[in-house]
Specification:
The structure holds four protein chains of four kinds. By secondary structure, chain A is mainly α. Chain A has helices spanning 2-12, 25-31, 35-59, 68-90, 92-98, 101-104, 109-117, 124-154, 175-197, and strands at residues 156-157, 160-161. Chain A has one domain (19-191). In chain A, a hairpin with a 2-residue loop joins strand 1 and strand 2. In chain A, 44% of the residues are buried. The chains are: A mainly alpha, B alpha/beta, C alpha+beta, D mainly alpha.
Amino acid sequence: MKNFWIYVKNGIFKENPVLILMIGLCSVLAVSVNVQNAIGMGLAFTFVMVFSNLFVSLLRKFTPHDIRIPIFIVVIGTFTTIVDLVISAYSPTLYKALGIFIPLIVVNCIIIGRAEAFAYKHSVIESIADGIGISIGYVWTIVALGAIREFLGSGTLLNVNIIPNFQPMRVFIMPPGAFWGIGLLIALLKWVDSKIRR
Amino acid sequence: MKIYGFKGGVHPPEKKELSKDIPITKIPLPEKLIVLTVQHTGASVTPLVKPKDYVFKGQKIGDAQAFVTAPIHAPTSGTVKRIALYPHPNGRNVLGIEIEPDGKEEIFPDISKDSSWQNLSPEDIRKRIREAGIVGLGGAAFPTHVKISPPPEKKIDTIILNGAECEPYLTIDYRLMLEKPQLIVEGLRILMYVLGVKKGIIGIENNKKDAVEVLRKYIDSDIEIAILPTKYPQGSEKHLIKAILDREVPSGGLPLDVGVVVNNVGTAVAIAEHFKTGLPLISRGVTVTGENVNSPKNLDVLIGTPVSKLIEAAGGFREKPGKIIFGGPMMGIAIYDMDTPVIKGTSGVVVFSEKDAKYYEPVECVRCGKCVDVCPMGLMPTILAKYVRKDKLIEAEELGILDCIECGSCNYICPSRRPLLQWIRVGKTDILAKRRK
Amino acid sequence: MKQILRYGLILFLVCSIAAGVLAFTYENTQKVIEINKKLEKEKILKEMIPEATEFKKVENLPKVENKLVKINEINIAYKGQEKIGSIWEVVSKGYSSDIILVIGINKEGKIEHISVLSQQETPGLGSEITKDSFLKQFIGKDTPNLEAKKNITPVSGATISSSAVVRAVNEVLKHKDF
Amino acid sequence: MKSEMDKLIVSSSPHIFVKEDVSYAMRQVIYALIPATLAGVYFFGLYSLWVILVSIISAVLWEAFALFLRKKPLNILLDFSAVVTGLLLALTLPPKVPLWIPVIGSGVAILLGKQVFGGLGDNFLNPALVGRAFLLSSYPQIMTSWIEPIHKIGGMVSQASPLTSTATPLAIVKLKLTGYQLPSYWHLFIGDIPGCIGETSALLLLLGGVYLIYKEIVDWRIPLSYILTVFIISLLFGKDPIFQILAGGLFLGAFFMATDWVTTPLTKKGKVIFGIGAGFFTMVIRLFGIYPEGVSYGILVMNALTPLIDRTIKPRKFGEVRK
């Protein structure tokens, strides 16, 4: 059980998928226009991440090495489609906002990357821990980025106006702003990291 | 004569007016002379005398077995006082023979008085030049007999005498051309005879027009004078050949590879003088100049004279000295010891005050590209320096770092005051050291 | 050979399970999704003309001469048997994208409601046409004589996008009695 | 002699250096921009002087702030590069922007365009253009609101009352706007036309540019190849080439931004390629893009390509044996 928490902790900062491993950036950059979308994407991602890790780990004894990738894809695809259908049914507004990005979770490098690099080689419990950790890392990053971009780009947070008369810097809701935002977050994490190390 | 020129180069202030109108004079015999065993490019020599030995003027006091070397001689008669380590202009301490002159100027009896070189075979002349210890007097001090012994497969068709004197401040070659034109032409003819060459060219920068006029009176149709634009480093062998003949010495090659031998006008004078007097190379012309000496001079000094004597002869320091440079300000070496003696390659001593020897704090490269524009070798100095700093020696070598002639143009022009040449030198040394391993 | 069979079998197995799970999910969500879609459409139409009780889609759309405007869909709103207005979905060529507008016309033939369904105009410039401050100028208009800078103030810096909206509204007003 | 000996300075050659350092070059750029700056103030009124001053002062303060954060000596400010950035940014702003615009713009220019990469020399994009691009995409309305010049050359007072909004010549052509009159070549050349504070007077920018070329601060190859490319492409696409050259910020960009040392290629050949590329992208944006003006993005795109150019284009080495 001690290992469980270590693996969970790992994904949050030390192996933060976006800021340290720098994979799966496409969805992060595209969806982090505002906090609401970020949270929605984060939850969808978490669901697929944890369950695909779980099942990949569960099936790892039966998965021949040569055809592991097709099997990972099928597992991930299944859970993604489930999320897609469920969101579409029960939260049409979120579905509208996330649009094509939910199906794209299938090819999100983070999930297939963790399946290959972690779940395929670890026990079910550890894989769930890793899925949770990575998901937390992903969620806090995308939400933080969403908050930065929404605040600077639209002047709001969760669609609530924060400062009256604030002139939003629209560039932050455009792609260049996404890169700047993620650059700032990476710099911040490295800076904090260097302070801690010292 | 058509001049082709070369790409790149810089135009530093010439400052030649300080000393250009002052005729060459001799200085009194100093109390001590230090003849270093490292005078030239190539192997250092072994002393042939012991302390307390009496030596004659022109007596050979050091020699070596190697091909690329030249013997050294006693500049005057006197006693060998000590054989010890002395400061060399290059900054290290090397073995030197200190001679206490007796003032009698007794000439070594075995010296050949035969001045008719026309009767000698080229091979004999080469031997005489070697025995006389004559080396290139332009600065690099490459033994002359090596230079004029090309391998048989290389056909030499032209000899160029280098009278460009592109270094700022220095005027000794200019004075030689004015005062000893017949010796220059004679020296050139000896070299042409040795190499069996029909064509001799004297290259002179166009800021020395009067020297051209004087030399014109002494030449025949076999010798031409090429008037070159004033631009640093016009006096670099490779660029002289390029500017005059439009031939490019291939990367890593020598002038021999394009059928040319280049010698300094001072060397020609030394050769001619040797066949006139029989004396080996024991003195040379040195310009002592700079805004910080009271009366800049062109001097004829004995090899081994300590620099302090030269400055004394030039009227001493004007104010507190900051830097004393052996050679010109572009390629010369700053010395730290006032006892450093003149060696065969010392063409000038430039003295800067503390104020003029200012050190500039380098800032980040602003990529202006000026170093690329001025590099006469077509290199990218700032990129080379960057590679060396990052220890990317393979990349630096691919970019041609070994072709650098260390003229310093990039360093001179850099608006960010970056020590580009220093980095390039470090890189060259490291690459060559790695190669030797 | 044997291995290929084994791999095939494993893949088949995994896929079948996945297919089963998906079929189950699909069954359970599809009905909700369809209801949602219908509700949403009605919601939009209802917002336009709230007192309507029923909407009927028009089959024969009127012809538009202007090549830059296209009518996508017309729904007639009824209150019981009475025709109380129409709702138009029109596409107009903007500066950098197709602007899709929804326009509601009441029974007096005046514009009751107008909103932008989708557009991809320059963010911050052309995209400002979605703002109420611009769109509310069209409310109550009934004759196709609108012109940017004359009786309609365009979004500053986005004359082309503004004109595209004006053009679309003019076409709708021209054909409102088809 | 001994005591003097201890004090001698030893350093490797060369021992002399040019007087012209980075700070000198930056000051020359500032001098070269003064005529166009003054003309801008004359055309668009004293308020634009405030915009310029605020931009310069805030650029210097942002630079000082960044240097303080990076624990660098403040005397780096003496290289005047922040002043140049502030001035160039101001000259690319419309005349009546609110004063917080240059403050934010110069902040982005200095912090995100320059200091995050390590300060002058390490930035790969022209800082002033980064600031302008940021402002243009963040506040497009403010950044595209133009006014008629309040003073015109030749005693002609403008017909429209000052401060009413208008459009730049390029926008009139690009957007086929009606109700505007296109200025004549003469006005385009003199600069009493709507536009950014410092971009309108082709004449004075040319003057400053020629001064910089004469002083050997900038290489003539970039402006020439840049302007020529714009000319030729306009010709090929049936646009009025003289109009395309004089209208918009081409002269400001070609002489003062595309010639920025740090962000352009090192070699002469590379500089020509840079100019041609900038001209090409400028025209692509003007002809097919969504903006009427393409100079800033044209240059930024080529800035980004500069490392590639420098990797590919090398000067011919002396004595290089051709294989």
